[in-house]
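Look at a sample.

——
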Amino acid sequence: MTRAALAAACTLAGALVASPAQAQTYGDIRDRQRDRDRGLGIDWVWLDAGAGYSWVGVDSIDTSKLQLQSTKIAGPTVSVAAGVRFFFLSVGVRARDQFLSNLNLWELDGEVALRTRFDHFDPYVGLRGGYVFNGALSSGASQAVEGASPSGISIHGWNVGPMIGCDYYFNHFVSLGLDFNGEFLFLERPPVQLPAALTDPMQIAKLPPAQQQAAQAAIAAYRESGSSVGFGANGSLHVGVHF
């Protein structure tokens, strides 16, 4: 037997011995992966829509007389979101509207989360933050100054905070989830438009001196801006679609 033939025979024998072991190794990996995700596969793009309840607490929205009467407000919330997932990491954007007791507060947030999967359950922890704004604060939510109520107060700011949740996958495409989010709120109020009762200097001049001083103080309060630092929390149930 030539040297070349001997080498070929050894190579073939080694392959025949190694093949069953390699096949077993690959089979174990495949089985473990199948047991881990129950055949759900890997999703790359996700969408969800949810509804829940929000609570917000702030110290004040101004430094003096134009401040919120109720500093703790709550109400229902709805949200929509979309994002991408890279195995254990997901990144997305979310829009949330909070219908609070005297304030309609919008949040446009980015979010990032670390995920893992056990059976059909997909728990995660992450961080969410972005821009907060509203249309106008109802006049009943702010204190009247000398009997005159403002026509509306606009506020805006930023939010950031942790989130935790878990999704249950019915199949590869549809999931139902529950999440909780706490956040710090940094809100600002620009100067407020004067009520009609405080825009006529001639009418103010006709008032007694004490009322004139009160009116001037009220005008100064309306022309001031305000800021607030608070905390919010919300929980929501959401339906997800995955691709």
